Amino acid sequence: VEAANINTGSFDPFDEVAEIAERHRERGNPTWVHVDGAIGLWARASLGHQEVMKGVERLESWSTDAHKLLNVGYDSGIMLADVGRGHGVDDLVRRTHSLAQRFARKLGESGRVEIKNDVVFNQVLVRWLAPDGDHDAFNDRIMHCVQSSGKAFFSGTTARGMRMMRISVSDWATDEADVDGAVAALLECAG
Question: How many Cα atoms are found within 13 Å in the side-chain-facing hemisphere of 69?
Fold first, then answer.
């Protein structure tokens, strides 16, 4: 199961999965459920994201990467500890979620895109709408344009049979001005 899918930022229903696993065990079927939390396991440290993490503790194993949301080197070790409420990771999770919502809101208000996911964490899945109807090519052109400008970097993905742009808010230094500047650069490229 996943905690923050790389394309949509969505979380699997951990309580439901745990119930299914427990029923399998009761029938004598060995069952082990692993949570891929490369990005989203950090949401457990945020009071504002407890609902999406409900039941994760009922599953057998979890993995995460510090290099994604915490912006540290690939070969770093991770130690998780309860240091109280309202500290670093909680702030980081809340802020990246808020900034992802800002991206979705500002791009959505432009009328030039469809936001293709519920922004429950730090991922925004964007489908640019081409005036000529060739949305797939338009999405790639916009990403190439903004990358070439050096103002922002967004990667593409193909999901649900459509070419889309994926926004991952994962840098601790990203702020509202960065989001607004990136949105302006994207809209300029789409113009």
Answer: 30
